[in-house]
Amino acid sequence: MHNRIIGIAASSGVAIAKAFVHEEPQVDIKKTQIENIEAEVIRFDQALDISKKELGEIKDKTEASLGADKAEIFAAHLLVLSDPELVDAVKGKIKDEHINAEFALNEVASMFISMFENMDNEYMRERAADIRDVSKRVLGHLLGIETASLASISEETIIIAEDLTPSDTAQLNKAFVKGFATDIGGRTSHSAIMSRSLEIPAVVGTKEVTSKIETGMTVIVDGLDGVVIVEPTEAEIAEYEGKRAAFEKQKQEWAKLVNETTTTKDGVHVELAANIGTPDDLEGVLNNGAEGIGLYRTEFLYMGREQLPTEEEQFAAYKEVVERMEGKPVVIRTLDIGGDKELPYLDLPKELNPFLGFRAIRLCLEKEEMFRTQLRALLRASAYGNLKIMFPMIATLEELRAAKAILAEEKELLLNENIAVSDAVEVGIMVEIPSTAVSADLFAKEVDFFSIGTNDLIQYTMAADRMNERVSYLYQPYHPAILRLVHMVIQAAHKQGKWVGMCGEMAGDEIAIPILLGLGLDEFSMSATSILPARSQLLRLSKKELEGFAQKVLELDTAAEVEALVKQTYLA
Hints:
The chain is α/β, with parallel strands linked by helices. 49% of the residues lie in helices and 14% in strands. The chain contains 23 helices and 16 strands. Helix 13 (360-366) crosses helix 14 (368-381).
């Protein structure tokens, strides 16, 4: 239809309201020669200081309303404003070329932005968005331009923008902002992640909403199917009001399952757990009835700061999570950093292919003191609940044995100091490298559990970077090769009496769930908002019946055939 714009569904729900097109002011930056260099440097410093003050306020507000992990974005922005590589380069340009601060800043920032944008991994491309957001703020102060604040919106609105920066999304008041749609971005961009936290329907990556929509037009944002409808007819409004009501009703039905255990139609219990980044995410986990934490990503403790977190800081964060989960299992992954996620204070070498580089367990085994600090904090926290330790990116048995040996040494040292440590800490690994999946029978003898990290397993198996749009068609969770690897891992673990979880996006996918249940997956771990829909689906499925179905699926030729068969058999 002529009034439909197709994009990527970033946050579930349906919104109908008048559009507000959020446009960046057009800035014309002219190069001028400066006589008084010192005064120009001072002018630049003042613009930096005002920007830091504003960002500090936004950070505090975000922390109060959305939690510390969402506020991390602004901690990163504050770091950019203090980064000598950027700040000194601008000042050097002002002094060497006798030019105005705004022109110097624009030149330096543009260089960094294009450098980051051309990198082939998403984390680095997000850094480009951070530098753009921060430099725009400083430029606004240098030029005396008021940046439009979205905080002042006071009527029901759908925001239309090329993209929403983290600063923009943090200011949205969900009482008035009913949804948004952007030209650029994907499911994992800052704006998409924020929209899910705010539970605002969003469609991103449409390429054309800003050119097709004007302020005041009526717009429907369908965050369930990734569609934006411009100036809908009365019939379309009625249809989507129905869809919105059905979704709200569905959410209420799901809400009734919060305190249920996840038991299939034929009485088999599987565990539904949540993935978290910081203790602040626990609110959502508990509200959505998770039966455990299947992945606690500890990287956030290390990011957006000037030096490594201490043992005490880490101990406090891990202890808070295991205590608040009241005996439910909490799987904590040791530091998975390097390559795509940088820590400036570690001064790691730049790598051509960071996803296949010096990261995760490879980094920890080399930077052993850092690793030992984390393991001590984890072991101490284990005395307060049901804590399990998981090593990421394990490729060889030697790596697993080395990590386990260090863990055993630290446990002994703590016990010698009369510090309490749980006797029952299970130790497992992430299965995200194809070689590990293929030799799962060897690993199963030396771990207590596996957790399959499908996000990386898929891209490594298919040799396709999931952030590269040109090859994204190869990122196929239902490809027979992926399903066979998952099957191999589950069989190898069960043969040794060990359990298997999955903590990639696939675990909460309605098409994957029936197959994974049939293959025998024991634990499904996902973002908190996916738990109730997944529980609702699992309650209606019979594991016994799906075992035969899963075997049939393994015989199919293509991902498309797998998807079609699941849809017609279980989702029709």
